[in-house]
Amino acid sequence: MSRQNYYATLQIDRCASCAEIKSAFHVLAQRFHSDVTEDLDGERKFKDVAEAYRTLRRPDSKAAYDHQINNICIEKVVLMTSLPGIGSFAWGLVLFNYFSWFWLNQGRDEE
Fold this sequence. Notes:
By secondary structure, this protein is an all-alpha fold. It has helices at residues 6-10, 18-32, 42-56, 59-68, 74-82, 88-104. The chain has a single domain, classed as DnaJ domain (Helix Hairpins).
């Protein structure tokens, strides 16, 4: 049995943000919920959507899944989730500030 593609299940792009994943889940969960759907296969689809969302909603499990399927967006996700609030551009600024401080203050202990 082959493993399903969670991005295809939620009908989203592989580089989707957390907000897009959550929105897609809510739309599909409402569509396939057993109280609403008339689709004979609705219960299975609802379970598939719930399983996909359970995996993709948390950054750590999403990164593990992306690594498993060789997702091209994995570097972006790991970088964005490693330090919340610091995007890829800001990483360069943080590293520049740290190393500048380090090299400028390196010889001050001898004085």
